[in-house]
Design brief:
Elements lengths: L5 E3 L2 E3 L4 H6 L6 E6 L2 E6 L8 H10 L20
Antiparallel strand pairs: 1-2, 3-4
Amino acid sequence: MNIKVVRIGNSRGIRIPRKILDRCNIEEQVELSVKSGNIILTPIRQEPRKGWELAARKMAEDSNDELLIPDVFDEEDPLEW
């Protein structure tokens, strides 16, 4: 497939067809690299909770994991539900 390089201000860019974006799982961001004179776009996969487990363990080790908002269920009788 041949596509045209277009001017975008002082830069240049290309338009990537939707079918190619879908096939390569490209959503919001890509990593751009150059290898042996070739431009390589690698999709950046968003991992919403990446690192949370490690951060929670660190907080517990540092005794920095206390509740900021009191637990509302401590004062209520669950049998009243």
